[in-house]
Amino acid sequence: MSNQLEFLDEQLELCGNQAKEAWKPDHEFAMACRRVEDVVGLLLGVLVGIRRHNDRWAESAQQEEIGEGCELCLANAYKRWLAEAKEVISLVDKCEEYGFEVKGAAKIRKAEHDVSLLPLDIEAFRQSYQSLQAGAGVPMNRAMDELRDRIRRRRALGA
């Protein structure tokens, strides 16, 4: 009888240990989702930096002071950011599947969508720039003025 009680006691201890450990996988997954949340914030911050550089480059482009190769660096930064964002979004999706809310999830999805719409074909840009340098194109501010004029004329005709 004593052996049977010892066996039952061991079984109860095993059950108790299993119960104490059962929460660990959920906790570890929750902590992983918090780390994903941190990466989301970091990626959004990096995108702010890329956009600042892009804005500076765009200003110099409008003033026709374009630095050679800068457009390639920016396009590569956007492409790399986009690849990282897609990977992180898949992790966000997994966290959400298990019921965890990830702060910044909507922002990273919108940012990924916005960046995915950017024209990152640098060869096309270079051809356009070379065309402008050869006198076949028009400066950006003139092109924008012409586009605005066309829009105004269309609105005036349609009104």
Task: Note down, in words, how this protein is organized.
With 159 residues, the protein is mostly helical. It has one domain. It is 83% helix and 0% strand. The chain has five helices and no strands. The longest helix is centred in the first third of the chain and has 61 residues. The model has no long low-confidence stretch (mean pLDDT 81).
First CA to last CA: what distance? 99 Å
- Low-pLDDT residue spans: none
| Structural category | mainly alpha
Q: How many helical elements?
A: 5
Beta-strand share of residues: under 5%
Backbone CA Rg: 28 Å
Number of DSSP-assigned strands = 0
Instruction: Estimate nothing, just give the exact number of structural domains.
Output: 1
Q: How do the helices and strands follow one another from N- to C-terminus? A: HHHHH
Architecture blueprint of SSEs:
Blueprint: H1 2-62, H2 70-97, H3 105-116, H4 122-133, H5 140-158
Helix pairs in contact: 1-2, 1-3, 2-3
Which properties best describe this structure?
159 residues, mainly alpha, single chain, 5 helices
What's the short version?
By secondary structure, the chain is mainly α. The protein contains five helices and no strands.
